[in-house]
Structures are given as C-alpha cells and as structure tokens.
C-alpha cells in the first residue's frame, strides 16, 4: 500500500510539470492563450487587449499557483481512484471473513493481488469446517453411545428386579435354586455397576483436567505387572502377553496414569487379537525418548479407522455392543494422558499385525 501511495505521488508530480511546461510554457502555450482570449472576447465581451492582459496576469504571472492547483486536483483524483480500489479490497476481504462463519462449501475468492490472503482464509475455513464436523460427529457418537448404554442398563435391571421378585415371592424356594438366582442377580448387579461407571466416565472425560504427579518409574517392572494382571483375560482364548526389554529403563512420569494407558492399549489388543496368539510388549530408549510398543496379531485395521481410534466415543467395531465393548473412551483418554506427558501415541496396522507405539520423553 505504501508503494502504491508513493507511485501516485510521483505520477501527480510528473503530470503537474507536464501541464506547466506543455500547456503554459510549451508547444500548447499559443493555442491555449488564443483559446482563452477568444473566450474572454466572445463570452465575457472584453476587447482583445484586456483579454490579453487578463491572460498575462492569471497565467503568465501565476504559473506556480496554477501548477499547485493542477497538482492538487490531479492528486485528489488519483487518490480517490486508489482509495476506491482499496475500499473494494477491504469489502472483498470483509466478505471473505464473513464466509468463514457460513455453513457453505463455497471457496473464498479474492482478487489476484490478494492471492496470499485468499489461500490463508480458505485454509482457515477448511480447518473450521473440519473442527465443526469433528465436533458434530463426536457429539453424535456420544448421543448414540448414551442411547446404547441406557438401553443396555434396562436389561440387567430388568433381570435383577425379576429374580429378586422371584426370591421375595417364593419363600420356600429350594436352596440350590435360591443360590443360583442370587448368583445371577449378583452378576447382573456387577454389569449394571459397570454400565453406570461408563456414564460417569463420559462425564469425567469432558470435565477433567489432567494433572500429573510424576515420579521415577521402573518401566520394566511396570510392564511385567500390567501383563501379569491380564492373565485372566488372556487365558480363556489361549493368548499370552510377552514383555521383551533388553535393558533396564527408568522414566520420569505419572505411574498411575501411565498404567491406565498401558491397560487401555493392552485391553484393546486382547479384544482384537486372534485366539492362541501372542501380544508382544517391547520398549527402548532413543535420543532421550522412550518408545513402548504393543504388537498383536489379528484383523487389520483400515487406514481410515486408524485416524479415528484416538477420538473420544469412537469404537473400532461399531457392531460391538456395550456388553462387550467400552464407551470408546479408553484410547482417547490414553492419548490425552500421553500428550500431557509431552509425548505421542500412534497406531499402524498391516498384514494382520497392529502396533500401538507410545513415545514419551525419558526425563520429561
């Protein structure tokens, strides 16, 4: 803009001097003088001598004045044209900014001179649209999940009421049958508790702020303990978890929250691994960073789903009910925890092998 203003000033100065040296002192001096004298004679009814003296006084003796007047008029005209152009630019920019909030797939178009701004506005618009779409999809998944959970709560609750009613009505029920009904009722109660915890988990995820309490943690021991705790889940399907770490690794992190991350990843690996398969857990240090990998053999995860598995309320297998699947928060919460540690969590899947890799700074 400053360059354009300087350009306008230079053009005005050049034009002013051209008017002076061409019209008043140059090749057009005589025609201009004759035209002025003829105007005075024919229109103002002055004689030739008076008209000549008027020309001399007005123009010959006041060249600087007329030069300044011409310069100012020309400058105002050029400035008005330039200002109109800038105003048009500002209006187009304003319209482009207004389009950022519109729910439209139309791209923002600006003049070629504002190509850089057009690209930035379209990038911002694309990001805002993606965020709005992601938020809408997350909200829809959340609503669907709440509906599923509410529906699933009815099932164990109905069973609990039914069996308790039978126990209340049949006072003389055989002991074996009574014990059977009590056992079933207790199992349904545990299931009901699990579903209610799912509801609380959803609320906590939306409201909580992750606060870390870091300590020096022996990673080898933690991973071995996590693997041992999963034995009851692994044994029925003939699965096993094997920890492979060559060197002793210590990291500075929040042990409780990190254990939750490893539990969530391992739980996911158990669910989606083939029967009689081995889940490999490994860790290594590299450039002051610790990498922990969980590798399982099972169904390959499509690339488009890999990009979404760390989103809240997303479940890899939408056909899975809450009876066997969680609320879709485990990996999302794990991602939040690892990010709070200044690390990352990623997943790759190919040839029936899926690898989850956690990276956290060793001395974060």
TrEMBL record:
<dbReference type="InterPro" id="IPR004358">
    <property type="entry name" value="Sig_transdc_His_kin-like_C"/>
</dbReference>
<dbReference type="InterPro" id="IPR050398">
    <property type="entry name" value="HssS/ArlS-like"/>
</dbReference>
<dbReference type="InterPro" id="IPR003661">
    <property type="entry name" value="HisK_dim/P_dom"/>
</dbReference>
<keyword id="KW-0547">Nucleotide-binding</keyword>
<keyword id="KW-0902">Two-component regulatory system</keyword>
<keyword id="KW-0812">Transmembrane</keyword>
<keyword id="KW-1003">Cell membrane</keyword>
<dbReference type="InterPro" id="IPR036097">
    <property type="entry name" value="HisK_dim/P_sf"/>
</dbReference>
<feature type="coiled-coil region">
    <location>
        <begin position="114"/>
        <end position="145"/>
    </location>
</feature>
<keyword id="KW-0472">Membrane</keyword>
<dbReference type="GO" id="GO:0016301">
    <property type="term" value="F:kinase activity"/>
</dbReference>
<feature type="transmembrane region" description="Helical">
    <location>
        <begin position="65"/>
        <end position="83"/>
    </location>
</feature>
<feature type="transmembrane region" description="Helical">
    <location>
        <begin position="5"/>
        <end position="24"/>
    </location>
</feature>
<dbReference type="Pfam" id="PF02518">
    <property type="entry name" value="HATPase_c"/>
</dbReference>
<keyword id="KW-0418">Kinase</keyword>
<keyword id="KW-0067">ATP-binding</keyword>
<dbReference type="InterPro" id="IPR003594">
    <property type="entry name" value="HATPase_dom"/>
</dbReference>
<feature type="domain" description="Histidine kinase">
    <location>
        <begin position="148"/>
        <end position="364"/>
    </location>
</feature>
<keyword id="KW-0808">Transferase</keyword>
<keyword id="KW-1133">Transmembrane helix</keyword>
<dbReference type="InterPro" id="IPR036890">
    <property type="entry name" value="HATPase_C_sf"/>
</dbReference>
<protein>
    <recommendedName>
        <fullName>histidine kinase</fullName>
        <ecNumber>2.7.13.3</ecNumber>
    </recommendedName>
</protein>
<dbReference type="InterPro" id="IPR005467">
    <property type="entry name" value="His_kinase_dom"/>
</dbReference>
<dbReference type="Pfam" id="PF00512">
    <property type="entry name" value="HisKA"/>
</dbReference>
<keyword id="KW-0175">Coiled coil</keyword>
<keyword id="KW-0597">Phosphoprotein</keyword>
């Amino acid at each position: 803009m400053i360059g354009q203003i300087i350009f306008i000033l230079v053009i005005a100065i050049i034009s002013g001097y051209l008017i002076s040296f061409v019209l008043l002192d140059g090749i057009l001096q005589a025609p201009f003088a004759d035209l002025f004298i003829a105007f005075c004679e024919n229109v103002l009814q002055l004689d030739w001598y008076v008209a000549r003296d008027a020309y001399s006084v007005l123009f010959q003796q006041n060249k600087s004045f007329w030069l300044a007047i011409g310069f100012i008029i020309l400058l105002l005209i050029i400035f008005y044209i330039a200002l109109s152009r800038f105003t048009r630019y500002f209006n187009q920019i304003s319209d482009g900014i207004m389009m950022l909030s519109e729910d439209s797939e139309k791209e923002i178009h600006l003049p070629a001179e504002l190509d850089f701004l057009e690209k930035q506005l379209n990038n911002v618009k694309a990001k805002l649209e993606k965020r709005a779409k992601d938020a809408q999809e997350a909200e829809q998944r959340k609503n669907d999940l709440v509906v599923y959970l509410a529906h699933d709560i009815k099932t164990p609750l109905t069973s609990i009421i039914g069996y308790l009613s039978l126990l209340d009505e049949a006072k003389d029920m055989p002991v074996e049958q009574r014990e059977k009904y009590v056992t079933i009722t207790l199992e349904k109660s545990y299931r009901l508790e699990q579903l209610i915890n799912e509801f609380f988990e959803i609320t906590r995820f939306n409201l909580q702020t992750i606060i870390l309490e870091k300590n020096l943690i022996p990673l080898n021991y933690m991973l071995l303990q996590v693997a041992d705790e999963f034995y009851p889940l692994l044994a029925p399907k003939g699965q096993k978890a094997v920890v492979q770490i060559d060197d002793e690794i210590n990291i500075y992190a929040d042990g409780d929250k990190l254990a939750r991350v490893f539990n969530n990843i391992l739980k996911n690996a158990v669910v989606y691994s083939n029967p009689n398969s081995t889940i490999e857990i490994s860790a290594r240090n590299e450039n002051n960073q610790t990498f922990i990998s969980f590798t399982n053999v099972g169904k390959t995860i499509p690339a488009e789903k890999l990009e979404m598995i760390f989103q809240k309320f997303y479940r890899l297998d939408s056909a899975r009910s809450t009876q066997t699947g969680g609320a879709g928060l485990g990996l999302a919460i794990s991602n939040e925890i690892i990010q709070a540690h200044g690390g990352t969590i990623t997943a790759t899947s190919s040839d029936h092998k899926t690898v989850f890799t956690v990276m956290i700074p060793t001395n974060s």
